[in-house]
Write a structure and sequence with these properties.
Elements (H helix, E strand, L loop, with lengths): L1 E2 L7 H9 L7 H20 L4 E8 L2 E8 L4 E5 L3 H11 L4 E9 L10 E7 L7 E5 L2 E2 L3 H10 L7 E9 L1 H10 L4 E7 L2 E2 L5 E2 L5 H6 L4
Parallel strand pairs: 1-10, 4-5, 4-7, 7-9, 8-9, 9-10
Antiparallel strand pairs: 2-3, 5-6, 11-12
Helix pairs in contact: 1-2, 2-3
The structure holds 1-O-pyrophosphono-5-O-phosphono-alpha-D-ribofuranose (PRP), uracil (URA) and magnesium ion (MG).
Keywords: Allosteric enzyme, Glycosyltransferase, GTP-binding, Nucleotide-binding, Transferase
Pathway: Pyrimidine metabolism; UMP biosynthesis via salvage pathway; UMP from uracil: step 1/1
Protein name: Uracil phosphoribosyltransferase
Length: about 210
């Protein structure tokens, strides 16, 4: 598991601003910080991918370099995933994209919930590098529901899960079903409250980015 905040960097500022109860009220800045954090994590993920030699013709000669063996598929879970996904597509600008409309349904009396899922727009995943972006990995239910339903689109060669903030509980839950998944996390927080929100976390990432949904 890669945790960006374990090595102090400017990315800590982006995460701090995402969390800051005052700064996060500026919706444009919240979305921009998710995007910038996405760009930082995209760079880190890119270092783990497979490269092959390529010759580049310059005006003065030939340069030999290493380029991606294959473009990844960038998947994201609506709504909160979109700004972080934008950061990834800024970096992996030749990648195919996948969109999943999965969300935590109306909570029961004990605040437990099921995942509702309708819309999916997926390319063929067989043999691809799949990068699934969802800023909050709380219980892990959204990610599991999503990955389970993606099985009908082919088996990816590798699976990368990207979150701005995650909990050990969410990581462990996903690892039970997808032990091959690689985790790329902005910051690892310690727990969930009784409403299954991450503590200290940042609040509701979708609402902060796009307004409270009814
Ligand atoms: O790990 P989990 O317990 O499944 O929680 C994480 C999910 O909850 C939030 O989505 P939400 O259902 O609030 O929808 P939204 O993104 O539209 O706000 C968040 O964006 C994650 O997708
Ligand atoms: O803390 C959390 C947990 C789930 N979804 C969010 O948006 N925030
Ligand atoms: Mg939400």
């Amino acid at each position: 598991m890669f945790v960006l905040s374990e090595t102090p960097s400017i990315a800590n500022h982006f995460i701090a601003e995402l969390r800051d109860i005052d700064i996060q009220k500026d919706r444009m800045r919240f979305r921009r910080n998710m995007e910038r954090l996405g760009e930082m994590l995209a760079y880190e993920v890119s270092k783990s991918l497979t490269y092959e030699t390529a010759q580049i013709q310059t005006p003065l000669g030939v340069s030999e370099t290493l380029l991606l063996e294959q473009q990844p598929v960038l998947g994201t879970i609506l709504r909160a995933g979109l700004p972080m996904y934008q950061g990834f597509v800024n970096v992996f600008d030749r990648a195919e994209s996948a969109f999943i409309g999965a969300y935590r349904g109306k909570p029961n009396d004990d605040y437990s919930f099921d995942i509702e899922m309708q819309y999916t727009a997926m390319p063929d995943l067989e043999g691809k590098v799949l990068i699934l972006i969802d800023p909050m990995l709380a219980t892990g239910k959204s990610v599991i529901r999503t990955l389970t339903s993606l099985r009908t689109f082919g088996k990816p060669a590798s699976l990368h899960l990207v979150s701005a903030i995650a909990t050990p509980e969410g990581v462990n839950y996903v690892q039970q079903y997808f032990p091959e998944a690689k985790f790329w996390i902005g910051a690892l927080d310690e727990s969930l409250n009784h409403k299954y929100y991450i503590v200290p976390g940042l609040g509701d990432a979708g609402d902060l980015a796009f307004g409270e949904k009814m």
